[in-house]
Amino acid sequence: EVQLLESGGGLVQPGGSLRLSCAASGFTFTDYAMTWVRQAPGKGLEWVSAISFSGGNERYYADSVRGRFTISRDNSRNTLYLQMDSLTAEDTAVYYCARATQGRFEWWGQGTLVTVSS
Amino acid sequence: EIVLTQSPATLSLSPGERATLSCRASQTISTTYVGWYQQRPGQAPRLLIYGVSSRATGIPDRFSGSGSGTDFTLTISRLEPEDFAVYYCQHFGGSPRHTFGQGTKLEIK
Predict the structure, then answer these.
(1) In the Cβ-directed half-sphere of A54, how many Cα atoms lie within 13 Å?
(2) Which residue of A has its CA nearest to B55?
(3) Residue B31: which pLDDT band, with cuts at 50, 70 and 90?
């Protein structure tokens, strides 16, 4: 069974940093691109970032996070990461990792909450 | 940049009724990369439909998708109690860039 388990969320001050992790199991991790999607409290879904199955230079970001967030993956650990720097209140959200196939998000984790507040 | 506009924002129906949800794109988009997701309260989204009309694994056949060009529709033929949720349309563009609509809340009347 496909499982995606996010961790690393929490409370951080404005300007701070946080690293999210997403542990994948139940499928061949290296066969799939992966992505992060976030949802601010009471709001809709916002795509954040994506990385190809191999990682490398194929990393993509939404305009709202480009230059502040870095996506990466460790295929030996079946784990996806999101390094978030220079956080602002607007980054407060539940962050979901998802497995991507041909532009669709087939499997989602349960999410991890990031709260940016002083 | 493509914008997806969903309507209505809220749809109030009773179990057993038919639901029709709309998603309009700001420009013509490829049907290959149009999808629909369901999100129940407190849960992660779930893929329902991809490629405009293909049902994801395990999705009941009362869910169907259609459309082309700029107008896309999710239809739920007979509403079950578990279908009352928020629904999002999504498009995968180039670069890549993914865009979601703002959502339609399907509530019990």
Answers:
(1) 3
(2) A106
(3) confident
